[in-house]
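Could you join me in thinking about how sequence relates to backbone shape in a protein? To get us started, please write out a protein record for me. Would you write everything just below, so we can both look at the same thing?
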Amino acid sequence: MVAGVSRGEFALVTAFLGGGAAWLSGRSMAHTWRSYRQAVLYALLLACVVRFFHYALFQGTLLSLHYFIVDAAFVISVTTLGFRAERANQMATRYGWIYRRSGPFGWTEDASRASAGNSA
Protein backbone atom coordinates (compact mmCIF):
# COMPACT_ATOMS: atom_id res chain seq x y z
CA MET A 1 0.00 0.00 0.00
CA VAL A 2 1.30 3.42 -1.01
CA ALA A 3 -0.59 6.38 0.46
CA GLY A 4 -3.69 4.30 1.19
CA VAL A 5 -3.91 2.88 -2.33
CA SER A 6 -1.97 -0.05 -3.72
CA ARG A 7 0.32 0.53 -6.68
CA GLY A 8 -1.86 -1.65 -8.87
CA GLU A 9 -4.99 0.29 -7.99
CA PHE A 10 -3.24 3.59 -8.67
CA ALA A 11 -1.88 2.32 -11.97
CA LEU A 12 -5.23 0.95 -13.13
CA VAL A 13 -7.61 3.68 -12.00
CA THR A 14 -5.58 6.87 -11.90
CA ALA A 15 -2.89 6.26 -14.52
CA PHE A 16 -4.65 4.04 -17.06
CA LEU A 17 -8.31 5.07 -16.85
CA GLY A 18 -7.92 8.63 -15.59
CA GLY A 19 -4.76 9.35 -17.57
CA GLY A 20 -6.22 7.96 -20.79
CA ALA A 21 -9.40 9.96 -20.40
CA ALA A 22 -7.39 13.06 -19.49
CA TRP A 23 -5.17 12.74 -22.58
CA LEU A 24 -8.19 12.37 -24.85
CA SER A 25 -10.02 15.19 -23.07
CA GLY A 26 -7.10 17.57 -23.45
CA ARG A 27 -6.71 16.71 -27.12
CA SER A 28 -10.41 17.16 -27.83
CA MET A 29 -10.44 20.55 -26.07
CA ALA A 30 -7.55 21.75 -28.21
CA HIS A 31 -8.99 20.18 -31.35
CA THR A 32 -12.19 22.22 -30.99
CA TRP A 33 -10.16 25.38 -30.24
CA ARG A 34 -11.45 25.71 -26.68
CA SER A 35 -9.47 27.51 -24.02
CA TYR A 36 -6.98 25.89 -21.70
CA ARG A 37 -9.08 27.02 -18.72
CA GLN A 38 -11.96 24.92 -19.94
CA ALA A 39 -9.63 21.93 -20.26
CA VAL A 40 -8.53 22.38 -16.64
CA LEU A 41 -12.15 22.62 -15.50
CA TYR A 42 -12.97 19.33 -17.22
CA ALA A 43 -9.81 17.80 -15.74
CA LEU A 44 -11.02 18.69 -12.24
CA LEU A 45 -14.35 17.02 -12.96
CA LEU A 46 -12.47 14.00 -14.27
CA ALA A 47 -10.44 13.91 -11.05
CA CYS A 48 -13.74 13.64 -9.14
CA VAL A 49 -14.67 10.66 -11.31
CA VAL A 50 -11.28 9.03 -10.69
CA ARG A 51 -11.74 9.51 -6.95
CA PHE A 52 -15.21 7.91 -7.21
CA PHE A 53 -13.77 4.93 -9.11
CA HIS A 54 -11.26 4.38 -6.30
CA TYR A 55 -14.15 4.42 -3.84
CA ALA A 56 -16.55 2.26 -5.85
CA LEU A 57 -14.11 -0.36 -7.13
CA PHE A 58 -11.61 -0.68 -4.28
CA GLN A 59 -13.37 0.78 -1.21
CA GLY A 60 -10.98 3.73 -1.19
CA THR A 61 -11.58 7.00 0.59
CA LEU A 62 -14.11 9.09 -1.31
CA LEU A 63 -13.88 12.45 0.45
CA SER A 64 -10.20 12.96 1.08
CA LEU A 65 -8.59 16.25 0.11
CA HIS A 66 -5.12 14.71 0.02
CA TYR A 67 -6.08 11.89 -2.38
CA PHE A 68 -8.14 14.26 -4.51
CA ILE A 69 -5.18 16.64 -4.89
CA VAL A 70 -2.93 13.76 -5.97
CA ASP A 71 -5.48 12.52 -8.51
CA ALA A 72 -6.22 16.07 -9.72
CA ALA A 73 -2.54 16.92 -10.16
CA PHE A 74 -1.97 13.80 -12.23
CA VAL A 75 -5.10 14.27 -14.34
CA ILE A 76 -4.43 17.98 -14.94
CA SER A 77 -0.84 17.29 -15.97
CA VAL A 78 -1.88 14.61 -18.48
CA THR A 79 -4.69 16.85 -19.76
CA THR A 80 -2.13 19.62 -20.26
CA LEU A 81 0.16 17.30 -22.19
CA GLY A 82 -2.69 16.19 -24.47
CA PHE A 83 -3.82 19.78 -24.96
CA ARG A 84 -0.32 21.03 -25.84
CA ALA A 85 0.40 18.11 -28.17
CA GLU A 86 -2.77 18.72 -30.16
CA ARG A 87 -2.36 22.51 -30.17
CA ALA A 88 1.23 22.18 -31.43
CA ASN A 89 0.01 19.90 -34.19
CA GLN A 90 -2.74 22.37 -35.12
CA MET A 91 -0.44 25.36 -35.21
CA ALA A 92 2.15 23.57 -37.37
CA THR A 93 -0.36 22.12 -39.84
CA ARG A 94 -2.97 24.84 -40.13
CA TYR A 95 -0.56 27.76 -39.94
CA GLY A 96 2.40 26.06 -41.61
CA TRP A 97 3.45 29.21 -43.43
CA ILE A 98 4.13 30.89 -40.07
CA TYR A 99 4.94 28.15 -37.54
CA ARG A 100 6.82 24.87 -37.35
CA ARG A 101 6.87 22.19 -34.68
CA SER A 102 9.33 22.67 -31.87
CA GLY A 103 9.27 19.37 -30.02
CA PRO A 104 6.20 17.31 -29.20
CA PHE A 105 4.45 20.05 -27.19
CA GLY A 106 5.47 23.32 -28.80
CA TRP A 107 5.75 25.41 -31.93
CA THR A 108 7.89 28.30 -32.98
CA GLU A 109 7.88 30.92 -35.68
CA ASP A 110 9.57 29.65 -38.81
CA ALA A 111 12.37 32.19 -39.24
CA SER A 112 13.19 31.17 -42.83
CA ARG A 113 9.62 31.66 -43.99
CA ALA A 114 9.10 34.83 -41.96
CA SER A 115 12.24 36.48 -43.35
CA ALA A 116 11.32 35.42 -46.91
CA GLY A 117 7.89 36.99 -46.48
CA ASN A 118 9.34 40.27 -45.16
CA SER A 119 11.82 40.69 -48.01
CA ALA A 120 9.24 40.35 -50.77
